[in-house]
Amino acid sequence: MSVPARSPRPAPRAEAVPRTRLHLNLGALVWPVILLVGATAPLMRGLFFPEDRLPVEALIGVLFALAVLHRLLRGRPVVPVTPVAGAAVAWAAVAYLGIGGAADHAGAVDGFLLVTAYAAFYAAALTVLDSPAAWRRWALALSVGGVLVAGVGLGAALGVVHFPGAVEGGRLMSTFQYPNALAGYLAMQTVLAVGWAATARGGLGRAAALAAGALAVAGLVGTNSRGTWLVLPLALALYLGGVGRASRWAAVYATAFILTGGLVAARGFFPQVESSHRAALLGLAAGLVVAVMGAALERGWSQLSRGPLAYVLELPGIAAKLRWAGLAYAAGMAGLFAYYTWLSVPQPLLGILPGSAVQRVQQIDLHDPSAIVRMLASRDGLELWRQRPLLGWGHGGWNALYHTVQPYLYWTTEVHNHYVQTLVEYGALGLLAFLVLAVAAPAAAVRAQRVGSAAKAADWTIIWALAAAGVAELLHAGIDFDFSFPSIVLTLLGSWACLEAFAGLDPAAGGAGGVLAGVSGRQTVGTRRPFPSVPPILGDPSRLRWASRLRVPLRLGVAAAAVAAGALLFVHTSRLYDAGTEAARGAQAMLAKQWVAARDALQTAHAEAPWTGAYTVDLAQATFAIRLQEDGGALTPAHRQEVARLLLEASHVQPDDLALRMKLAEVYALLGMPEETVTQAQAAERLAPLDPDVYVLEARTGLAAIYASLHAGDRAHALAAARRIADLPARWTAAARAGNARLPEGFFKNPEEPRPELVLGRADALYVMGLYDDVAETLRPFVRPEDWPKLRAWAQGQGSALQPRASPGTPPAVAAHAFATLAAAWTWQYGHAADAAVQALLAQAEKAQRGSKAVYLQLVSVHAGG
């Protein structure tokens, strides 16, 4: 019996490229929204405020879930594995780990959700912005947003567009409501317009790019932002130096026409906008025409170069010499402009720039008070960072703590230096993650361009425009808080996704394809380099068949986890948005004295965001008003404890919030709990040792506690409180001197003299302590020297007629307070019960400050009873 010959074993087939099992193009749902966010986010006040930002964060959560499912269906890695994606995830991890030790728990939670949204947006953008067509659409979306933002600012200056805060103090703020952030954004738009003009193929597209760039420059001049005058030339030089030979001259011409047209438009618009709207519009139009003429001149030159001038230009070296001569002239003019901008503005520019811009440019000086305050803020930020170097104080930590280390009383919710603020709020680990995020994509794109094909070189013009525009924002963020506007961060991340996609393209594939290549979603195979395989550290991969069996479950598990993360981002940001909406509704009800409706709304806000102390304090106030009505004007002990419990909870969730501490002091005072009121005032002093209002609050609340202790018969407690109040002026002077010792030479100093309210509070405390001579010496500055003997004689019963007058410069209210306190003190010092005289003097005091008579008669009676 013959054995049949075995058929040869078929050779193993090459591993096929993963194909889509379900013909669903979820990317078609993602990329339009990505482009919409890029174009419209700057219009929503830059997403600076939670009511604008939180809906966008929730939308990003949905986009991320759709992008993950899209990648799963396309057989691509479920989560992008790139340096920028890793840096964004690391930044979010640092934000999460820092919540426990954050100075502001509400801000830290908000910051964690925000940074998570950044990482999710980048992953979604990297999924769909993966082809040359996608990059151009993204750049176009950014340019459309820039034109709209500049148009809103210029329209608001004309009065035809009504956007709150678009123009303040003669400076354009547009939708950002802050001029310097607007200037940084428009600088980015200027660089992007140069890229569009250099890469446009038709005359109409080039003219539109030049007009958009001129509009951005005109708006930039209207912001009067001095720092941008230094950043924009650097960004343009960076772009022109790296754009490539094929497009360099077109970019140089575009830069010249955009800057010229923008300056002419600014000169024609801003000086006329107050007097004649028609003249202002004509000036703006003239500048745009000058810019657009660049497209016509370039086209005319190209026609001439192929016609009559062709023979001349073909002579050896003529074309090169003309180009180098033009470049030398442009460089010389740029250097001259930079030199005179640093020292003073040359007379020719006085005819180009608006007068306000000229004055601002002339004030560029490192000794300018604004610059010094920014340097102080950076130094104070580094001091806070040294206290918690690795993880920082959490999002909002700077605003919560900078008063504790400042040597001079200034007010700013931002450091005006994003890198220092990142150190303060996210520590060294957070700054490291952000720096990797900032440099990884441009570095990868530059490396890819150097080794890329001709197809990549053709795409480099617009890619490098996105990179240089982002670098402009990174430079400007060193002198202001541009990246505190989430719309600018999203713009950067979208551009960085284009850069990393450019770096990942396979040169052999010619750079075609991508999700945006067609509506059907058919992606050209091989457009992206395969991700490197894991090295066989456990042996021969062919023997690890068990590992291949886990591939599908592992992918599904990662996809499920990623989709769940997107869903959680959506849910939590939606809850925060609902909490803010309910809190706003509760605040409106409180203003209308609809206490029940206010309590119901604030209870919802408190349940959605229990870590936000402001919601809890507002709930306590609404509850206090309701219980007061129920109890007929006097709270029962149970109701008092109910309100006090809410106030205690608020102080625990945000212990380092200065405004919250001062508000708690006011509510405790209404509740009739003087000791708790003093505790909050003292906590406020620890948070802001250079804020005089805090000391005044402590003096006022301390006196209320003294009166309560005297009424209760606890004189020892009253005397201890009086000693603290009597020391307030000395504590203020010591804090001011310590701050002055840390200030730079020549910088304006803190006032070391205490405010009159503190001196008067010290006099009241000394009176309670029975130190009547010290009361008189304390109040001597408030009494005219020639009236001092008369006042003493009157207090001793030796005088009958007295017309006390305050010393020059003393406000009437201060004089009334001083006279009333002095009258009460000397009446007891000399043992002369001059009731009629006391009544007469207090009546005069009451004319200047209503209530002084009642307050000090009460003080005299309490002292007499004690």
Question: Top keywords for this entry?
Answer:
single chain, mainly alpha, two-stranded antiparallel ribbon, disordered N terminus
Any overview of this molecule?
- The structure is a single chain.
- This protein is mainly alpha-helical.
- It is 70% helix and 0% strand.
- The protein is built from 35 helices and 2 strands.
- It has a two-stranded antiparallel sheet with strand order 1-2.
- The longest helix is centred in the middle third of the chain and has 41 residues, at 551-591.
Helix content: over 70%
Q: Supply the number of helical segments.
A: 35
Mean pLDDT across residues:
79
How much strand? under 5%
Overall 3D form: globular
Q: Which structural class do the helices and strands define?
A: mainly alpha
Q: State the strand order across the main sheet.
A: 1-2
Residue ranges: pLDDT <50 for 5 or more in a row?
Answer: 1-20, 340-367, 506-544
Terminal Cα span? 129 Å
Sheet with the most strands?
2 strands, antiparallel
Total number of strands: 2
* Cα Rg: 35 Å
Quick summary:
A hairpin with a 2-residue loop joins β1 and β2 (about 170). This protein has helices at about 25-40, 50-75, 85-95, 105-130, 130-160, 180-200, 205-225, 225-240, 245-270, 275-305, 310-315, 320-345, 345-350, 355-360, 370-385, 395-405, 420-450, 455-475, 485-505, 545-550, 550-590, 595-610, 615-630, 635-655, 660-670, 675-685, 690-710, 715-725, 730-740, 755-770, 770-780, 790-795, 810-830, 835-850, 850-865, and strands spanning about 165-170, 170. Helices cover about 70% and strands about 0% of the residues.
